Every structure is written in C-alpha cells, then in structure tokens.
C-alpha cells in the first residue's frame, strides 16, 4: 500500500528535517509515494490516517519526574487538540515519546471526538526485547518465540511475562518455562534486563534507542493496520475499561492484544499467578500516580 509521509518539527529544525527528507527520497523505498516536511500543524495533521507521535521532552540531568510530566502534558495536549481539529476521526494514533503511556492518555483526552480506542502507545520495543532475550538464551531466532507479554507502563516497573509464551524447538511448540528450565533466571535477571534495557542502551550509546525503536514502531503500526497473525498476540499500551485483569478503568496500560479489522481486543482469560499479580499491580499503581499528576497539569494548562 503506497504511503505519504508527513514530517512535523519545530521551525528551528526545518533545515535538519530537509536532510531527513532527502535521505528518505534517496532510500528509493518502493511504497513511499511522497514526503512532506513542515512546521505547520494544519499541514501535518490534515486528514491523517496514522499519527506517530515521537517527539517529547526528554528527561535531563536534575529534572524531577513531575517537571518532565508537566512539559509533556503541554506538548501532548497541543498534539491532541491538533488531531481533534484536523485529522480524520478514524485516525490511529501511536504515541512513542516518553512517558509514552501517560502522554497517550493526555493526547486522547485532548481529542474527545476521536474514539479513545484509536490511541495506543508503544510497548512493542519491550515486547521485542523480551522475545530477543528468550531467543538468545535458547539459541533460536526471535521469530521462534511468540506470545510474550508486557504488562503496564513503558518504564522500569513494566512486567515482562513469559508464562504464556511459546518457543519453537525442533519444529515443536513448547512453553518457555518448560523449554528453559531456569525459573530463577526467568523470574529475576530476565525481567530486570528487559525493564532496564532502555537505560542500558542510553548508557552505552549516550543516546536513546533508535533503530530498535523504529523497528518496533513498524511492527506496531503494521499490526494495527493489517492485524495480528492467527494464534499470536502482541503487547500494546491501550486504554483499560476496568474489566480486564483487574486493571483500573481509564488507565493507559500495556496488555496482550490481538488486532482484526483495525480494532484491537485484549486477550482475555489468561491465568495469572500471584507472582504476576503483584508485578501487574505495581506498574498499575505507577500509572495511576502519573495519570493523577498529568491530569492536575492538564486542567491547569
Ligand atoms: C527505550 O525504552 O529505549 C526508551 O524509551 C528509553 C528512553 O528513556 O528514551
């Protein structure tokens, strides 16, 4: 399906954006019909089918979490308002900029005429990280691992869960716990490695993840648009309706989902053990606190 990419940035960055535009043209991508670079919201958001909100205020040295939230509430309130004003009501909005879950909720609240189910935030990067860690440990490729779950926030409280994940070994699908036979690694180092991976990449690169984040965005958007493969689920931050896995209503929480006809559905009925329950509640608590802080700023912004 041919696409037109519209790139929005602030005015001082227009020169740099032109460089990005040239590189995109030079990729000679078969499906890329056109690229438009702009600093005008009405041009950028007009009749959009898919909006990928990447830009946010990054945390700098000495900054409190609250300061970060305040700056981002302002940004995502504006982006939500622009979506409300210019985009199609069927637009699918994917929020990447951190704190992604709460930024996504802010944008959704600021675009009340766009269905809240059209908004999702990226936890596919964490999902892919979890798949890759399991694959590395077992000496298989990531493609052989499916149905890992990222629950909750795209932060260090997220819970990467492989209780329902399967791996293909010698042509046979087996549960990851059964295949690995290393519960202490799965309940310890595996979880912390995935939770801390973003920070580890920043420490090594002195920059935040870029290539893996871009790949995760492609995976996420492709699944939103074309659906998830039969028998597979993926992780996405979506709005909770209060009926799934004891997660409070109106939290932007990462769940296992399937997608069909451009509509996601939380995978229901997976058994949750006490170990998982505790971790799922912890990340929900952090999200509830972020939401409360963001909403204070939202009402006063
Ligand atoms: C990541 O997970 O790589 C990023 O969200 C980390 C960050 O804070 O930019």
TrEMBL record:
<feature type="binding site">
    <location>
        <position position="98"/>
    </location>
    <ligand>
        <name>substrate</name>
    </ligand>
</feature>
<feature type="binding site">
    <location>
        <position position="9"/>
    </location>
    <ligand>
        <name>NAD(+)</name>
    </ligand>
</feature>
<feature type="binding site">
    <location>
        <position position="129"/>
    </location>
    <ligand>
        <name>substrate</name>
    </ligand>
</feature>
<dbReference type="InterPro" id="IPR001252">
    <property type="entry name" value="Malate_DH_AS"/>
</dbReference>
<feature type="domain" description="Lactate/malate dehydrogenase C-terminal">
    <location>
        <begin position="123"/>
        <end position="297"/>
    </location>
</feature>
<keyword id="KW-0560">Oxidoreductase</keyword>
<dbReference type="InterPro" id="IPR015955">
    <property type="entry name" value="Lactate_DH/Glyco_Ohase_4_C"/>
</dbReference>
<dbReference type="GO" id="GO:0047860">
    <property type="term" value="F:diiodophenylpyruvate reductase (NAD+) activity"/>
</dbReference>
<dbReference type="Pfam" id="PF02866">
    <property type="entry name" value="Ldh_1_C"/>
</dbReference>
<dbReference type="InterPro" id="IPR022383">
    <property type="entry name" value="Lactate/malate_DH_C"/>
</dbReference>
<dbReference type="Pfam" id="PF00056">
    <property type="entry name" value="Ldh_1_N"/>
</dbReference>
<dbReference type="InterPro" id="IPR036291">
    <property type="entry name" value="NAD(P)-bd_dom_sf"/>
</dbReference>
<feature type="binding site">
    <location>
        <position position="65"/>
    </location>
    <ligand>
        <name>substrate</name>
    </ligand>
</feature>
<feature type="binding site">
    <location>
        <position position="72"/>
    </location>
    <ligand>
        <name>NAD(+)</name>
    </ligand>
</feature>
<dbReference type="GO" id="GO:0030060">
    <property type="term" value="F:L-malate dehydrogenase (NAD+) activity"/>
</dbReference>
<dbReference type="InterPro" id="IPR001557">
    <property type="entry name" value="L-lactate/malate_DH"/>
</dbReference>
<feature type="binding site">
    <location>
        <begin position="96"/>
        <end position="98"/>
    </location>
    <ligand>
        <name>NAD(+)</name>
    </ligand>
</feature>
<dbReference type="GO" id="GO:0006108">
    <property type="term" value="P:malate metabolic process"/>
</dbReference>
<comment type="similarity">
    <text>Belongs to the LDH/MDH superfamily. MDH type 2 family.</text>
</comment>
<comment type="function">
    <text>Catalyzes the reduction of aromatic alpha-keto acids in the presence of NADH. Plays essential roles in the malate-aspartate shuttle and the tricarboxylic acid cycle, important in mitochondrial NADH supply for oxidative phosphorylation. Catalyzes the reduction of 2-oxoglutarate to 2-hydroxyglutarate, leading to elevated reactive oxygen species (ROS).</text>
</comment>
<keyword id="KW-0520">NAD</keyword>
<dbReference type="InterPro" id="IPR011274">
    <property type="entry name" value="Malate_DH_NAD-dep_euk"/>
</dbReference>
<feature type="domain" description="Lactate/malate dehydrogenase N-terminal">
    <location>
        <begin position="5"/>
        <end position="119"/>
    </location>
</feature>
<keyword id="KW-0816">Tricarboxylic acid cycle</keyword>
<dbReference type="GO" id="GO:0006099">
    <property type="term" value="P:tricarboxylic acid cycle"/>
</dbReference>
<dbReference type="GO" id="GO:0047995">
    <property type="term" value="F:(2R)-hydroxyphenylpyruvate reductase [NAD(P)H] activity"/>
</dbReference>
<protein>
    <recommendedName>
        <fullName>Malate dehydrogenase</fullName>
        <ecNumber>1.1.1.37</ecNumber>
    </recommendedName>
</protein>
<feature type="active site" description="Proton acceptor">
    <location>
        <position position="154"/>
    </location>
</feature>
<dbReference type="InterPro" id="IPR001236">
    <property type="entry name" value="Lactate/malate_DH_N"/>
</dbReference>
<feature type="binding site">
    <location>
        <position position="59"/>
    </location>
    <ligand>
        <name>substrate</name>
    </ligand>
</feature>
<dbReference type="InterPro" id="IPR010945">
    <property type="entry name" value="Malate_DH_type2"/>
</dbReference>
């Amino acid at each position: 399906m041919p696409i037109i990419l519209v790139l929005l940035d602030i005015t001082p960055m227009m020169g740099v954006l032109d460089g990005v535009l040239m590189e995109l043209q030079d990729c000679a991508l078969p499906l890329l019909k056109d690229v438009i670079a702009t600093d005008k919201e009405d041009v950028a958001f007009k009749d959009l089918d898919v909006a990928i909100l990447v830009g946010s205020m990054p945390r700098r040295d000495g900054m409190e979490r609250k300061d970060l939230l305040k700056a981002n509430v302002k940004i995502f309130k504006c982006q939500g308002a622009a979506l409300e004003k210019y985009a199609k009501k069927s637009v699918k909005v994917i929020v990447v900029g951190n704190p992604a879950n709460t930024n996504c909720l802010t944008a959704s609240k600021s675009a009340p005429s766009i269905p809240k189910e059209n908004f999702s935030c990226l936890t596919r990067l964490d999902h892919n990280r979890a798949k890759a860690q399991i694959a590395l440990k077992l000496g298989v490729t990531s493609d052989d691992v499916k149905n890992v779950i990222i629950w909750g926030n795209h932060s260090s409280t997220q819970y990467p869960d492989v209780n329902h994940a399967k791996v293909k070994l010698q042509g046979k699908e087996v549960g990851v716990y059964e295949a690995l036979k290393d519960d202490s690694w799965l309940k310890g180092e595996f979880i912390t490695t995935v939770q801390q991976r973003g920070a580890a990449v920043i420490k090594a690169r002195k920059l935040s993840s870029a290539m893996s984040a871009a790949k995760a965005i492609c995976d996420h958007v492709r699944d939103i648009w074309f659906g998830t493969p039969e028998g597979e689920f993926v992780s996405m931050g979506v709005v909770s309706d209060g009926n799934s896995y004891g997660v409070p209503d109106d939290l932007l929480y990462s769940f296992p989902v399937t997608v069909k006809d451009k509509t996601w559905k939380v995978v229901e009925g997976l058994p949750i053990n006490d170990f998982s329950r505790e971790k799922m509640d912890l990340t929900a608590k952090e999200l509830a606190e972020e939401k409360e802080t963001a909403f204070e700023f939202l009402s006063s912004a």
